[in-house]
Design a protein that fits this description.
Four copies of one chain form a homotetramer. The first copy, chain A, is 63% helix and 0% strand. The first copy, chain A, has helices at 8-21, 30-46, 53-57, 63-87, 91-105, 108-111.
Chain lengths: 127, 127, 127, 127
């Protein structure tokens, strides 16, 4: 399974089936799933807690660390897919719509490498 | 663009190009991106902060609330895609590997609707 | 040491000395400390991840669980004290000022047990 | 009100009374309060999201930024106090106990300015 040939729907189905087989939907309220995503995001952050930006870019130099980070990223992704399943939200369409909104808010020419008012660069999520 | 026909690679490319066009990679250290994902996950949680599980399952009844939640989920997804790009991690493969590990740890028959020792149900992310 | 007889300054001093003795201020940039507080807050959340509100109110019935929650709360408090030390922010004054602001925003008579516009009840932190 | 002369109990009482006057305890399950603390911690992190460690140490140079950070720290503190109230946890005792545990785990002489195995420096919260 690879990004180049795997659709969002296929990944969502893997998660859906796993949850269904175990009758775990009862625990997967959107409230609990949002907490779960935040918990995993914090576990991912832990790997970068005390190192600086440059060192964080080199995390791939250490196979063990990269494997741990990869697993936390997978956990975040799984909960995001579970949320999409529970709320029946098409992720690709949601991402596409948000990126269109971001592009309008941060025109490429004006945003290159610097602060695009009123938000900080690299921060496209301030709607 | 829909989950049924969109690959992870296609979504990653949208994010990659957006970041590249604005010369924003300089801000996208894995450290900063992990903070960003946690920040967006918390914004998503805010929509469920004071309501209970049952009410959170009905969030889709209110179009305005669903739209807001959908946008936060998109923000989380975008930062996850940006992280995958920066760390050159194949998301589909990472998710597949983690789900295989989860399935081994929580065999369906033993995990149905109840606590699978030693973790809580619905919590497949405790490695 | 008890809340009834311990000042914020005394608690801050315990933390300050600990950090100083180990020459750890070099790691305690406000950026890293804010990440640390978020990480600990997520660890605290984990104890309530799959249970409902009512069950969370009974967490004190189980001594082992209460001890674990107590330790996470202590961790959150420690990082908050470290942040106050690094940024030279008087916590008591900051809390007092914010609670005054909250009281003006949510007059008691109008806010009793229900949604105070435009925020949700129990959510005094939306400034 | 200042840290030098304010006890934890006095700060807890301010929060307790505020919540009581508005009949908001119904919303303050430990589950919801833990989410609230994590949400505020993320809002605090936002102020340091795209800047580096050195720049984060200079946040006090800008009065407006410092005021915003001060307010987020107050919000975190308020929810921590609310949690202590709901769970009847003495914060000073909890912090004292954890710092004693930390001191035993990270003896000052061995931990000075460097990694104390097996945890990272500055990270006293890995129990």
């Amino acid at each position: 399974m690879q990004d180049a040939s795997t659709t969002l729907a296929q990944l969502r189905e893997i998660v859906r089936r796993f949850v269904e087989e175990r009758d775990w939907r009862q625990f997967h309220s959107p409230k609990n799933l949002s907490m779960s995503l935040a918990i995993e995001a914090a576990e991912l952050m832990e790997h970068f807690q005390w190192i600086d930006a440059a060192e964080s870019r080199r995390i791939g130099d250490d196979p063990a660390k990269l494997a741990a980070v990869r697993e936390e990223i997978a956990d975040c992704c799984c909960y995001l897919l579970a949320l999409a399943n529970e709320l029946e939200i098409d992720l690709a369409a949601a991402v596409r719509d948000k990126m269109v909104k971001n592009a309008a808010k941060y025109p490429a020419e004006q945003s290159r490498g610097r602060y695009a008012p009123p938000e900080l660069p690299g921060q496209w999520s301030r709607s």
